[in-house]
Amino acid sequence: MATAPLTRVISGLTGVHDLDDPALAGLTRAARYDTLLGLAAANLRVGRPVILVAPFSTERARPSAWAHTTQRLATEPTLIWLHLPPDELIRRLTRRAEARDQTKIRDPAAFLAALDLAPPSRPAPTPRRHPARNHPAASRPPPPLPRAQLVPPPDPGRPRLAPRPRSRHCGYLRPP
Q: So what's the pLDDT on residue 42?
């Protein structure tokens, strides 16, 4: 969300609203990830836990890009790769109904054909798959995060810079 205001300005100037569109991505991706990583590094320096939520598409596909990205952080991050079945992905985009998703919703087959669904090329924890709602695994709690140290949420009386995740299954990564 830290990059949303500037991305909206550039989106308005170009008339492109889909962040995956090469025209908009080419103008904004480096700055968006630079901002995201800069905020993460600043929070880690002061001892705040950090969870980054982003596709990291380039970083997933190229180990050298992942290495370059992780050099900016004061700790070795853990990449958690989540996978949704294509029909569930389209259902969620449709429900979200953001302007940036309209092209994907209009032509889901083209969107899915262009989407990189391959697992990360770098060593990463075993990919987790979203179980179908009626699948027996859906009722089981998720396994613990590998290589991540789960700690309780920060003290509620302590000032926070970012909202606490709302899922009861979220953990926090402890800074170094």
A: 92
